[in-house]
Structure formats: C-alpha cells, structure tokens
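G., the chain you wanted modeled:
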Amino acid sequence: MIDTSTAPIRLTDEQRRDWLRLIRSEHVGPRTFRALINQFGSARAALERLPDLARRGGAIRGGRICSADEADQEITRGGRIGVALVAPGEPGYPPRLASIDDAPPLLGVRGNHDAMARPMIAIVGSRNASGAGLKFAETLARELTGAEFVIVSGLARGVDQAAHRASAAAGSVAALAGGHERIYPPEHEDLLLDLLAFGGAISEMPLGHMPRAKDFPRRNRLISGAALGVVVIEAAERSGSLITARMAAEQGREVFAVPGSPLDPRAAGTNRLIKQGATLVTEAADVIHAVAPIMERPIELPSREAEDDVLFDEPNDGDRARIIALLGPSPIGIDDLIRLAKTSPTTVRVVLLELELAGRLERHGGGLVSMV
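Predicted structure as tokens:
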C-alpha cells in the first residue's frame, strides 16, 4: 500500500500510471482519490472497484475510467516539454502544498525542482491594477526573493504578472488554471518560459486542458497552499484574490493585505481584509517577520485513516438508505452523518464514495458533503 500522506515516497512507474488513471477518471477529485486509496489500499484496486461503486451509488452506467494508454500518453507528452508528474513527498512537490487536505495526488511540475522546496510567499491582486499597485508588487517581489523566498502567483495580468517578472531571475512559480499546454492568458507564454530556469510552473490539470471559470478557484488553492502566506495587493469586493485570501485562512496560512485609498474600488477588498484581521503590509519586512516563526515549525501532513478502517464489505440497503436520507443540498459534516446514521465511519465513507462516483455528491472543505 502507498500511504498518500507521508514523505518521502517514491512511486514506481506502474504506480504512477495507476495514480494518474485514478485521478483522471470521472468523478474522482483529490479528496475522493485519497478516500479510495484509504479504502482499497492501492490505485489499482480502486480502479477495479469504480464501476461497481458508481452503480451502487445510483449511476445508470459507470463513469469514464482513464485507460492505461491514455495515462502513458500523458506521461510521455509531458516529458517532452519537461513536465514531471510528482506525488506528495517526491522531489518537486511543494511541501506545504502537500499538507492541505485536498492536495493534488499528482502535480504536473515544470522547471527548477529545487525552487519548489524553498519557502514561498504568494502575491496576488487586481488584473486591472493601478500603477502604484504594480510598482509595489514589483518592489515587494524583489525584496522577498532577496530574502530567499520564492514568489508564487497565478500568471494573470496585472499584479500577478508584475510579481512574476520582478522575481523571475531569483525564483518565481506560476500556478496554472489549465494544463501546461494551455497557458492562460496566451500572451504570458513567454513570461512562463522566463520563470523556468530559477522557478517554474505547477498544474493539476491534464496537459491540454483549457481553463474554465470554475478552474480558477481550484488554481487559487494551489497558490495559497504552496505558500507560507498570501499578500493581496488591490482587490475589488468581488475578486479572485479574495477567494485566494479566504482559502489561505482556511488552510492556516498567513493573510496579508496592502492598504489603499478608500476612494479606489480596487482597494475595497484589501481594506476590508485588514478590518477582518489580515496583517497590514507596507514593506517586505512586515511579511518576513510574520512568517519567521512559522518557518521554524515542522510541516504537518494530514494523517491517513487507520488501516484497521480499510473494509471491502458492501453496506446493507438499510444503512445506505438511512445515510442518503440524511443528505441534501445543504452541506453536512461527515462526523454528523456518522452520528445521525448510527452506523460505522467505514460504512458512511463507502456510501459517500458510491454517491460521488455516481456524480450525485459534492465534497466541500472542512469535511462537509452535500447532494448535487
């Protein structure tokens, strides 16, 4: 059995292909992947159980399963452009990203793998940033890389672009919403190439995946998850940068905000973050002093469920019906489901897997689930 929560690990070529097949199969996300590995002991065993689990969850037919040929082709294609698919604990996988509860089981990493192991600070902000905001992003990025930090951002226009360009020669990592063959925005392909010598790019998506609106929040969790803290420079009240800040807080990361004029709507989000308790930033020293104590603490990876819980028995119809009846469109905690259903944790987890693989269940952060 491969333990997905401990480091270091080294996947064999066969295991890497099986992991890729599992995460690329329909209705399997990072949390479901981990639940399947915990439940069945290996990706190979989980792949064999997917059709039956989906059927028991109410699917008329099983979801699409990634074939071995498709997985081999993705690995080969990625290798041609320098993309390595790495698991948590393997070289090239940012160690802090591995600590979040929905860490990608396999991360497509391109560029300097040593940079991925160094402490990172995220800088994000408005795509339509002011000249002052862009200048501050550049200054902050240069000063932080001068203090041996790597800058991580989202390769977007505006603040992201300014932070990447200012830190490219010292270490900057771009988290991509699409695949490595579908850089967005397209005009930043040259910028990405500039990052590869001392930094790089990460993506959890298939190589040719064109980013959609829903992919950017997923990308944002990679930005915050890989970093010690997130600095927000100019963000309107409804912006992706505030989503990144929220995710950072949920992941236990430091949240920093640069104050702005109350007359500028681009500063409304950052000023509100400061009111809510974010650390005010006017210089790099504010960030460095705040994260120094965090760097001294070991990185805590989520623990895998006890092996005693691995169980292959099918839940009975009564348990299944009782658990489904407790679910609805409003998220509920898995611990509450176990208590209310008056059954074992393993039974609840298996039923949730069945429903998710049938496309009927959605998992949320904090151990919450709801019916689609």
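The chain has a mean pLDDT of 92.

Shout if anything looks off.
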